[in-house]
Amino acid sequence: MSPSGVAGRILIVDDEPANILLLETILADTASEIRSLQDSRQVEQVFTEFEPDILLLDLHMPDPDGLEVLRRLRSVRNSLGFLPVIVLTGDTGKVARNSALILGADDFLTKPLDREEVVLRVRNLLRTRQLYEELATANAQREQRRDRLTK
Buried (b) or exposed (e) across 34-72, using 16+ Cβ within 10 A? Predict the structure, then answer.
């Protein structure tokens, strides 16, 4: 568990091994488990098997690029409720940022990455996911109680 009390399963997708190693090092204390991929063609399968709490996704990769990965994961992410995605890129243009946000990215970090900012943003989104899951659980329990009372 991280010092903030929030930890989660983190999936990192980046075609550059140095970026993956850097993120794994930065996030070691924030994650309960980290899985990393260099090949974006494997994202859908690994995403389904690993069930991450957050996805860190490079925008510019060989086919499929980060925008296409966001498109492909849209329905599975929607079915899970709130599952945050942080897009990582060296592209500082508004088109890249807006395209990622339109496709469902929750945050956007520009390379070179600031260690502290990465940790803080990941922790904040993991905490938001944790709160979402707690609320969903509480709502399900309330519905069960209500159903028992109406029978």
Answer: bbbbbebeebeebbeebebbbbbbbbbbeeeebbebbeb
Question: What CA–CA distance (Å, rounded) separates 2 from 48?
Answer: 25
Q: What is the pTM of this model?
A: 0.88
Query: Given pLDDT bands bounded at 50, 70 and 90, which one contains residue 50?
Result: very high
For the cut 80, the answer to whether the pLDDT of residue 92 exceeds it is yes
Structure tokens at 89: 């890129």
CA separation (Å) from 128 to 7, 38, 81, 132? 11, 27, 12, 6
DSSP 122-137: HHHHHHHHHHHHHHHH
pLDDT at 128: 94
- Rounded Cα gap, residues 126 and 14, in angstroms: 20
Domain boundaries in the chain?
Answer: 8-150
| Pairwise CA distance, residues 89 & 109, whole Å | 7
Report whether CATH 3.40.50.2300 matches the domain 8-150. Answer: yes
